[in-house]
Design brief:
Structural class: alpha/beta
Helix content: 40-55%
CATH class: Alpha Beta
Oligomer: single chain
GO molecular function: hydrolase activity
Protein name: Alpha/beta hydrolase
Pfam family, one: Abhydrolase_6
Distance between the termini: 30 Å
CATH superfamily: Alpha/Beta hydrolase fold, catalytic domain
Strand order of the largest sheet: 1-3-2-4-5-6-7
Keywords: Hydrolase
């Protein structure tokens, strides 16, 4: 298995998929709470993040998650995804609805979203910094863009370390670079109940995505947090964790 991961707890399985600004360490504030509530928690590092290496062949993130569950002998799981990790969770749930018990999507991306002018400008600025070799500048740009105003200094520093590490892994010279395999995603195929979370201090794109998905996904609900930026699970875990637990207890109760 290519992906690095860890497993903790016993009970119904939850798979936590990180934002592409972070790695699986972003879920540190959720791990003890979810395991104490009676869940088995699997945290993964997608390829090129955390402890997972860059791909050595064409790949697909949702397939990677499915392969990991196969390796662990797990037939079904609830998926909790943040931002780009939410996009992976959506694809998994659409392509493998029979294996998905619930979806919790925090400030999620989605494959067919057309970015706003503000989000495009961010991407262009990041690209320019990286092309100039200014990895530190690109890292700071991401910390400023994605971490909300209520995060403490320790949280900002952890995001800084995770993003810097991801850049270092992804920008390192490799013999050959492999892209991800794009697969069709039919949102209408998703049958799992879905929690959508958005933040007031985030890019408007992610609120718009949550509103759209709340209309398109049957059995979904949208919670908008007036204090949150793009990473509510890190910014104020003491307020986000009860929202997650209430949803999970209703949809995949621990025995």
């Amino acid at each position: 298995m290519t992906l690095s991961y860890d497993v903790a707890g016993d009970g119904p399985t939850l798979v936590l998929i990180h934002s592409t600004v972070c790695d699986r360490r972003m879920w540190d504030p959720q791990l003890p709470v979810l395991t104490a509530a009676g869940y088995r928690v699997i945290r993964v590092d997608l390829r090129g993040f955390g402890d997972s290496p860059m791909p050595d062949r064409p790949y697909n993130n949702a397939d990677d998650v499915a392969d990991l569950l196969d390796e662990l002998g797990i037939e079904q799981a609830a998926l909790i995804g943040s931002s780009g990790g939410g996009r992976v969770a959506i694809e998994f749930a659409a392509r493998l609805p029979q294996r998905t018990t619930a979806l919790a999507l925090l400030c999620t991306a989605v494959a067919d979203h057309e970015p706003s002018a503000r989000l495009r400008a961010f991407g262009e600025q990041e690209d320019a910094l990286l092309e100039a070799g200014d990895v530190a500048g690109a890292t700071e740009l991401n910390v400023t863009a994605w971490v909300g105003p209520h995060a403490d200094d320790a949280t900002r520093e952890l995001v800084r370390r995770m993003q810097r590490h991801a850049f270092e892994v992804q920008l390192a010279p490799v013999a050959e670079e492999y892209g991800s395999i794009k697969k069709d995603v039919d949102l209408a195929a998703i049958t799992a109940p879905c929690l959508l979370v958005s933040g007031e201090h985030d890019f408007a794109d992610f609120h718009d995505i949550a509103v759209r998905l709340s209309k398109e996904l049957a059995g979904s609900r949208h919670v908008h947090l007036d204090w949150a930026g793009h990473l509510p699970s890190m910014e104020r875990p003491e307020e986000l964790n009860p929202v997650l637990l209430d949803f999970l207890r209703e949809t995949v109760p621990a025995h």
